[in-house]
């Protein structure tokens, strides 16, 4: 092919045509991947189900208490499989059991809903992975949960069965709310998900415009109130929830700042590698100074976070440097670090390439051992954060002290 010479006529559209064609082909792949994550019978994403023993554990009663309640009509009779076993229970059934047994873990009306941002300005540290698993953990445990995808790359949104830029418009995200709050109201962008008890405010690429629009608004009005845009949005609906999880973008931008302002607790995923460690240190310092500036300019002190916890993420215990850094982190951060860690696991990789979380896998993708090990770590991380949340509720004062 001849190289075009400046000024000479040549086909300028070919490069964009190439990209357009690649984009079209990629969409076809995305569609195929998305369909793998769907239930072949219903064509939709299916929520998790549990055998009676696990259901009993999750509703804090025994299996025989469930059987008895089904016999005496307090709970609906459960259908049977062909082999005569009770059909597994979904989250809706668990919720009903908790209502009947009086074991709902909901906060008291006077307790503040936990608004947790899973923050780090670095990308790829496991923010979205932890945010989605955490949100699903809370829903499985019976808490009323909202996950807010604040990242225009929308990886959390994809885990809920959406192709963000095809299935969703700009009015379906926080951007739509910002653009026309009068018209929409936040409630109209909150969606149910395949996890009963877990709602989602989705995101797509349009949310990126929020960066510019907040900046433009700041320049125009010289008022920093705009940084409360996400905080205000959440305050419209947070009374409906026990836990709100925010998944921010991997950048030091306006949206990240707005997320830090909106949260009342923070989880910081930090891989124990030198580069990630050093950028997380920078993140902490920048987040602090920016928040101080905002306080100064806004003339009001921001309430303290209920908890800030570092979670060592993507840990590879076979790497001696990871082990060394992890030990140093424990030494320096002490109680600010979760005891549990989130190791790098092939099971997370495998689940996410099926657009599923590990909680959604019906069977191990790797081996049973790797799967169970991964689940144990995930559960331990989520349970520690759950304990922090419960400890922030006055109505639960003293719980877990034993
Ligand atoms: N503990 C882990 N083990 C294996 N893969 C992981 C783990 N945590 C995250 N990943 C993978 O790394 C990639 C980036 O993770 P993600 O959670 O999207 O990071 P972030 O939101 O911080 O950018 C994803 O493909 C995810 O599946
Ligand atoms: Mg992310």
Task: Describe the protein.
The mean pLDDT is 90. The strands form two sheets. Strands 5-6-4-7-3-8-9-10 form an eight-stranded mixed β-sheet, with helices on both faces. Strands 1-2 form a two-stranded antiparallel ribbon. It starts with 12 loop residues before the first helix and ends in an 11-residue tail after the last helix. Strand 5 (191-192) and strand 6 form a beta hairpin. It is of the alpha/beta class and 402 residues long. It has two domains: 49-101, Multidrug-efflux Transporter Regulator, Chain: A, Domain 2, CATH 1.10.1660.10; 114-396, Rossmann fold. Helix 5 (127-140) crosses helix 16 (368-391) and helix 11 (229-235) crosses helix 12 (254-262). The longest helix has 25 residues, at 274-298. The protein has helices spanning 13-36, 52-59, 63-71, 91-101, 127-140, 155-158, 164-167, 174-179, 181-184, 209-221, 229-235, 254-262, 274-298, 320-333, 346-353, 368-391, and strands spanning 49-50, 89-90, 114-118, 145-149, 191-192, 198-201, 243-247, 265-270, 308-315, 342-343.
């Amino acid at each position: 092919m001849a190289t075009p010479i400046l000024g000479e006529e040549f086909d300028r559209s070919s490069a964009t045509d190439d990209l357009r064609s690649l984009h079209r082909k990629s969409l076809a792949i995305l569609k195929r991947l998305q369909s793998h994550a769907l239930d072949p019978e219903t064509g939709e994403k299916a929520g998790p189900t549990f055998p009676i023993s696990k259901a009993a554990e999750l509703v804090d009663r025994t299996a025989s208490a469930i059987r008895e309640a089904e016999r005496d009509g307090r709970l609906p009779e459960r259908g049977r499989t062909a082999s005569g076993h009770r059909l597994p229970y979904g989250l809706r059934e668990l919720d009903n059991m908790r209502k009947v047994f009086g074991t709902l873990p909901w906060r008291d009306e006077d307790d503040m809903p936990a608004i947790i941002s899973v923050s780090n300005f670095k990308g790829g540290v496991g923010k979205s992975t932890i945010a989605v698993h955490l949100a699903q953990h809370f829903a499985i445990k019976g808490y009323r949960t909202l996950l807010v995808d604040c990242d225009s790359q929308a990886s959390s949104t994809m885990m809920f069965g959406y192709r963000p830029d095809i299935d969703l418009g700009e009015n379906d995200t926080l951007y739509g709310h910002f653009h026309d709050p009068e018209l929409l109201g936040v409630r109209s962008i909150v969606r149910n998900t395949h996890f009963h008890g877990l709602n989602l405010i989705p995101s797509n690429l349009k949310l990126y415009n929020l960066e510019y629009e907040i900046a433009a608004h700041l320049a125009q009005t010289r008022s920093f109130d705009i940084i409360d845009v996400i905080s205000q949005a959440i305050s419209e609906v947070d009374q409906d929830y026990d836990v709100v999880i925010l998944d921010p973008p991997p950048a030091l931008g306006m949206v990240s700042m707005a997320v830090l302002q909106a949260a009342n607790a923070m989880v910081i995923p930090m891989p124990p590698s030198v580069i990630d460690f050093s950028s997380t240190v920078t993140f902490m310092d920048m987040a602090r100074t920016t928040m101080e500036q905002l306080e100064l300019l806004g003339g009001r002190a921001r309430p303290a976070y209920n908890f800030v916890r570092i979670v060592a993420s993507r840990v590879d215990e076979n790497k001696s440097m990871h082990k060394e850094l992890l030990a140093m982190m424990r030494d320096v951060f002490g109680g600010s670090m979760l005891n549990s860690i989130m190791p790098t696991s092939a099971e997370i990789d495998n689940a996410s390439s099926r657009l599923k979380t590990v909680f959604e896998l019906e069977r191990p993708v790797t081996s049973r051992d790797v799967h169970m090990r991964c689940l144990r770590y995930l559960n331990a991380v989520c349970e520690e954060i759950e304990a922090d949340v419960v400890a922030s509720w006055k109505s639960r004062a003293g719980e877990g002290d034993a």
